[in-house]
Sequence to fold (329 residues):
Amino acid sequence: YGYTTQYDEVFDAIVWWMRDQHGAAVERDWITLSPCVVTSISLAVEAYSAPGDRVALLSPLYGPFFTFSRAYGRVVADCPLRVESGRFEIDFPALEAELARPETSLLMFCSPHNPGGRVWSRAELERLLALCIDNQVVFFCDEIHSDIVYPPARNVSLLTLPGAEKVAVVPHSIGKTFNCGGLMASFMMIPDPNLRGRFQAAANRFHVADVNLLGKVALETALSPEGAEYKRQLVAYLRENTRLVVERLRAAGIDAMLPESTFLVWSDFRQFGPWRAVFDRLLGDANVALSGGEFFGPAGEGWFRINCAHPRAQLLAAVDRIVAAFQAP
Ligand SMILES: Cc1ncc(COP(=O)(O)O)c(C=O)c1O
Fold:
């Protein structure tokens, strides 16, 4: 377990996975290893914006995007997503105005989106990319959930779009798909040498541009034809899990978004009162701890995120307890 500096197989595995699974021609030089995507979020804020700059993001959104933007003294420029016909839509006019501001240096985006599991279309991503290029905004596109996508939805990696090489900064990880977040094994893909250099400089300041030996073995093992077969079976299983959970919740009068990606179901408990009381009832009566939506910004308050990555029987029993707890007089 000595220091592991030479382990080139990891880079071959990443290049193979991105080509085989996402049709992206990632070059080995683009890759920087990183302990986890949250580390990369923090480093990207530091590398691509200055104190007082605006960081554009679309809430509700995975909490650390807010946390680190604020921690570095950046202004969180929220362009909230709109809910239309039960799915999230981007407010393009608001985002366009935001990205056109000279102080906006970075767009923090999640593709597919957490929460809600929205898979963004090629047209939407192309529009975002064009806006970033036109306004010289760095496009951080968190693709950690991109392997778990339910047909007919199809993930479009930002790295497959012409022009992405100018502004794209894309993290990915095996933490979600292979349930090994604790091994701290993620990677950044940054085509532009200048942007890559800035990220690496930030990572080197904290000595975190690397992954430990176990993480490297996990990356090499997961990002392989065998891993692809595991993923294929996993996606089919999770798709049915999420479908069943949404079906049961909706039948009980609790609205929930049917995810096109992710093992997470974004569910609306606002009718049951303040989120803290709902959380206590979930825990006390249903014996289930859900992630509270306020972690995803003010737009998430009153919503809860149900993790469906469990054996089906255990998951459905928990959902039945939730339904019973809220149907009680
Ligand atoms: C969008 C998103 N990014 C990053 C993470 C965390 O990734 P990591 O464990 O690699 O920091 C999560 C986990 O929930 C996530 O949903």
Q: What stands out?
A: The chain is about 40% helix and 15% strand. The pocket of pyridoxal-5'-phosphate is lined by residues 36-38, 62, 110, 114, 142, 144, 173, 175, 181, 186 (CB under 6 Å). The chain has two domains: 9-223, 227-327. The longest helix spans residues 225-251.
